[in-house]
Amino acid sequence: MIEKIAEIGSSAVAERTAPKKTGAADFGEMLTRALGEVNSNQIEAMKLQERFIIDPESVEAHEITTAMAKANMSLTLAQTVIDRMLKAWQEITTTR
Fold first, then answer.
1. Does residue 30 lie in a domain region?
2. What is the pLDDT of residues 3-37, one digit of tens each?
3. For residues 72 and 42, is the Cβ–Cβ distance under 8 A?
4. Is residue 88 domain-resident?
5. For residue 74, what are the contacts with CB-CB under 8 A and spacing of at least 6?
6. Cβ burial, residue 67 (10 Å; 0-12/13-18/19+)
7. Which of 2, 26, 83, 86 is least crowded, fewest Cβ atoms below 10 Å from its Cβ?
8. Are 71 and 47 in contact, with CB atoms under 8 Å apart?
9. CB pairs under 8 A, 24+ apart, for 65-70?
10. CA 5 from centroid of its chain's CA atoms
């Protein structure tokens, strides 16, 4: 009986001290997800190019152009965000 009470008490303490997850993802998860999307855009454009080389009738040229533009735009946006994050970090560290 005492063991059960101790077990319930320790689980209650663990629940109170464990970090609570809210519905919103933290910044690291969001960044990882965004970079995953950039990667998938690049892979999709590459696969369309390969399909066009192997079987030109299976893919329209405008599909490849659109996929390449989307991949390029997402990569450029990711590079811009990373550059601005690094610049902000450098400003934070130099003001100390």
1. yes
2. 555 566 555 555 555 555 665 568 888 889 999 99
3. no
4. yes
5. 37, 38, 41, 42
6. buried
7. 2
8. no
9. 67/41, 70/41, 70/45
10. 43
11, part of any domain: no
Range of the domain at 82: 26-94
Cα–Cα nearest to 61, from 70, 52, 69: 52
DSSP label at residue 89: H
pTM of the prediction? 0.66
Please give the tally of structural domains in the chain: 1
Residue whose entry in the numeric block shows the structure tokens 């009738």: 57
Reading the block at residue 69, the tokens are 């533009």
d(CA 4, CA 12): 12
Helix (H), strand (E) at residue 72: helix 61-94
